[in-house]
Queue: 3 jobs
Job 1
Amino acid sequence: MGLFSLTQEIAVDLGTANTIIINNDKIVVDQPSYVAVDTHGRLVAVGEDAKLMQGKENANIKVIRPLRDGVIADFNAAELMIRGFIKMVSSKNRWFSPSLRIVVCIPSGSTEVEIRAVRDSSEHAGGRDVYMIYEPMAAALGIGLDVEAPQGNMIVDIGGGTTEIAVISLGGIVTNKSIRIAGDVLTDDIQEHMRRAHNIKVGERMAESIKINVGSALTELENPPEDYIVHGPNVMTALPMEVAVSYQEISHAIEKSISKIEAAVLNALENTPPELYADIIKNGIYLSGGGALLRGLDKRLSDKIGINFNIAEDPLHAVAKGTGIALKNIKRFSFLIR
């Protein structure tokens, strides 16, 4: 029966850094949000294949990240990317293409124009029925919280383009704060630091590797990672350099951005009604998204704010899993946006 199903349902976590697609409760696509096009705007590669080309393009190929700061920055590239990913899911059935029902997650601070851009891109990529869900709500569902209960839960979702902070109760967002300081800004901070402190030029991918290997929110860690060796050209002479980078150094490099995330969490707490605040103190605050994996971040936030911070079981996939749960409960959840 599944082979001739007239409607295919997919949940899409359209992220600045990665796009994840869930079909039949399984993650079927988990790829970087990159697309490579030729000079005529035709699709060359999508996802991991396109990311490998980044920084290595020739005159005929251009690699684009269609999303910036959590929203669509390049409409045509986004459409090509979504279409390419959907093709990965539905390539198994070549006889006919079923109509698509899609649930896509969007930042809670999205404007009407940004919401329309996501809807239009999804429809142009083949979506017949397009629903949207705010990222913190999807993250809460993915973590396993009962979002419809009369109690306050606070989510801090640190993605690639935005950090989403929201207090959820009774199936709705009570207070939310969406700031454009997240993984990408931390990567930029590292690039800038390497240039300023060591006179070494590092690309986006190398800065990302530094963040993953020695990124830390604290200058003192119980299990410190080993120093990471970075190779690159000297900014002044273009001669090759080798620099060992420690986690303490990176913690100083990203200090300003982490402080801004702290301030945003405090700001969201200030605007939280007292009854819900009491629930949050009791339940703790949940961290999700790739940024939750930054060493020592939960401890730093707990010490600073005085409320326990819990890292989601699978922080990278929490939003995607929540979007998948929303897909199965389209008729029940009133917070989905048409």
Job 2
Amino acid sequence: MLKNLYLIRHGETLFNQRNIIQGVINAPLVLDGVAQAIHTRKAYFESRNIHYDHVYCSPEGRCIQTTQLLTTLPYTTVIDLHEMCFGKLEGCPVFLAAPVSEFATYYANYGGETLAQVQERMNRALLEIMNKEENENVLVVAHSCANHAFMDYWAPDGKIPGPEALNYVAVLHFQFDTDTQTFALLDIFNDVYAGEDLEEAKATHQALILDPKY
């Protein structure tokens, strides 16, 4: 049986704007982040008449906020979908981030995860999700490095280089084969956000700021 997985990066956050390394620590979506989620909902899901039956997301607040902007369906948080842990470099300026050539193991030197560890838990989480009998078209909201790690595992010849190449609220559309237990990358929606939907986003962003959960 073939199933569809729509794996999405969260919207832009305050730490993203301030160039702060953000893994398992969290910052809320900024106004642009809210608008980016609205844009992806309209330009990808609604314009293509794509529907999903189940929704999952990382437990980080920025992913929960993005999920709520994409859909009104109930969602389930899954711990293994969290962003790559950067150890002692969490919260530091991005100029301390790993050189591209050392990315796979760099953060383990600071108490963080390796790329292989991220791939292992992302595979574990998404295989469990996609093997649920009732899940046929699934929306999952997670993170840049985590999503890129999963894509690199299943589609190493993908056209997007580097761990930061997935734009905010980018969509990776995978097909999952329950017989072979494999994922195939079918499509990438990676729009460069250009300021659309800001007016619609303002009221929603204000509500998120006032929400004590975040």
Job 3
Amino acid sequence: MRILKYGMSGPDVELLQLGMQRSGYYADNPDGIFGPRTQNALRRFQASFGLTPDGIAGEKTYAQLRPFLVGYFTTKIRPADTFYRLAKRYDTTINAIQQANPGLDSDNLQVGERIVIPYGFDLVPINVHYTSELMELLAEGIKARYPFTEVGSIGKSVMGRPLYSFIIGEGEREAFYNAAHHANEWITTPLVMKFMENYLKAYINNTNILGRNAAKLYENNMLFLVPMVDPDGVDLVNNALDRNDTYYKEAKAISERYPAIRFPDGWKANIVGTDLNLNYPAGWEQAKRIKFGMGFTTPAPRDYVGTEPLSAPESRAVYEFTQKHDFSLILAYHTQGQVIYWKYQDIEPPRGHEIGTALAEASGYTLDLVPAESSFAGYKDWFILNYNRPGYTVEAGLGVNPLPLSQFGTMYRDNAALMVTALEETAKPE
């Protein structure tokens, strides 16, 4: 995180505000603007942690702020500590502490032993713009709070950022949800992340998620998630790249060749101008012919298919990750349109229409066919072509991309129902 001062703005200011909000020092909703309210809140935060209250967020301030962004901290067990007393002291729950510390015996706590304390608030925020930095913080937080969840990376982006993955469950049937193939559709990342968090909370508390028994879903499925396929592009769209960075400058130069596309809001591609959802080996040559005919013959903010299938490291990583597993069903999250696309050309996977109908009923979305000009070289297309199993592109929300965070509540309501229904359907025999 860069040093933050009065008058600055951007997603890192939002993270500063989020951390102070969670710690109780900032009462407003994060807006990414370092104004007087943020400065005054920061001074109070700094003073409370024994720092010089200069209203400038540097390395020492960030070190105190970071636990509120990853959602946990570690401490040493004191004499007479119990999980109950720790939960009361730190305003969390006994169960949350138990789950975060599977190696500790609650009846035999050892003084001086390190213990993970999850905070009582939800980890996954829905009131800030997402970036690769936030994704890294959330991956750490999920691993600490729910250590039975496998957190890893399926590969790296052009700029070397991890493509984080999460694996939940112990069943034989596998489902895969991915999001943010397109940079300016980044709101799908918190959509998938919030569902994952609510599923994990329901599981450890032995409760339901949207009327379904979370423990039963966990036992019957393995859910794989890659919530941010295009972290570099997301950073570009959400102004998290330094404007002196070479990649930013190259993206800006690409955009200037396509002046009709807003920059950076209209950017869908990866950071070097390849549209990741047009880079899979499923009618790639047809996609090339269509998109070249539309004028996208060079790296572009959208619709450039790449030099060959899987030329982008991000799409290749998703392709290879899929090949290593045995997914019975996939959801690829995009925006917008409130529509679910289910076929690839004339291929109708077994139960594809049946499951698609159930997803449409759960979400209120329309089950439909992909428009002809966009019906090739997508991830869903390749999955159906290669495996002949149910695969769906879900176009969440309505409006002009990037969709505003004000839509998140409605989007989550509709798509949480869709995602839990997809898990139920995954568990059924083919």
